[in-house]
Task: structure prediction
Amino acid sequence: MSLNLKNVSLVSFYTILSRLLGFARDMFFTAYFGTSAIFEAFIAAFQIPNFFRLVLGEGAMHGAIIPVYTEVRKRDGEKEAQKLASGLIFVLTFIFLGLIILVNLFTPQVAKIFVPGFSESPLQFAFTVLFLKIMFPYLLFIGLAALTMAFLNTGGRYAVPAFAPCLLNIAHIVYMLFILRMIPAEMLKWTMLAFTVIIGGAMQLFLQYYWYRRCGFRLLPVIWHPEMTKILKLFIPTALIFGTAQFNLLISRAIASFLPTGSITYLYYANRVLQLPLGIFSIAIVTVSLPSFSEASIASGKDDIVKRLRGSLLLILYLIIPATLVLYILPLDIISFIFERGRFDHASAVSTAGALKYYAAGLFFFSVNRLLQSVYYAYKNTSTPLSIAIFTLIFNVALNLSLMISMKHCGLALANSLAGAFQCLLLCCFLHRLLPAGRVLSGLKPFLPSLVLANFVLVLILKYAGVYASGLANHWRLIIILSLGGCGYLAAGHFTGLIRGIRKCIGECGR
Result:
């Protein structure tokens, strides 16, 4: 299995579809609920099972399960891999059910940990507790869906796992379009909105499990597998790594709960926009790269991983830097185009755009961090990224506390970006212990002049095209600017030979 543009493009296509549906969902959210205190409680409660899903689900997949599962599948065959998969499904189901019971027993206490500022508003806190009780079982479905996604990706199947997140967005959209207006009681509307999360999570799991069975998987009566000891040793530090990364966001959200009402919502919607390029480009590249790195570390050695890492970094440079420039230069235009309607007024758009601008400054670092962590995981090295993640967490907390007073919620977004840059620097510094990092960087040098020129053309268009389109409505103005900018960037990449060079570099991966 080698890194190739076809797999990246496939994941990107379905990720684009999921993000577009997500934006459609958020448009309905802003129109119906705006930045109200109750909706802020819904967002805060929804982020809690997502935190555990990212740490115990997707975090474990990347750092512990995929490398070991790939090794077993390659060394011992498909039958033994199915035994390992069956044991993992049983163990994770047990862990998720235990967490669900604990959180439902101590819901108020959990809510106070994640959003302590809400305790000053009894109504908002009561809704947070209610939403959390309803939505936390979402963890079981989405956690097992993440596990199934890991198995499918390891087998080279990317389409269905990439499409599955669309189902949660579809469930929300269907609810708001066809069911919400039919419910007379306000309280019941909010309750049903929370239950829609459970429905969406169940749909994601059942679709992927059905497809996994079509690929030949059969759930075997296996409770434990010898290789799970190795996974457990990798799982704990990996969970801590992803935990510290998520704690960075949770700390920002907890601090934002002490700021004026709407701060959590501003950060949420700004982060939603940031996730579009992060999901379409960065996560798509990492999703394809990790199984590729894991396989190369077993079979091919360091030379092959250097090639694949160079190709992945080059793709990130080519795709993420222009996305960063667009979000940094046009934050208000983008937020107004997507969200400014209904109860989401212009003042809310301005506040959200401020957060987006500072989040955008860290987009490149967030992308590179996930890729570099995948290299460490492929070598089953979790101690180094764990130590780095802990230092990053401490650095982020200090920045949050120092910037929140003067910059409010924008300071929290900037703190996350600076922490991402700090983490990226440390990951790069220690990479030489695994790979000849100098060879990775030297392979990128020939592309840098073309990249700088193409992005310079993009900045000129973004800066000056808006002047000539200033008399148009905001949505037409944004469409024209982005269209011209995209065409200019592609043209510069074509005439400088950048696109041709990237394709050649990617083609060399895995040879």
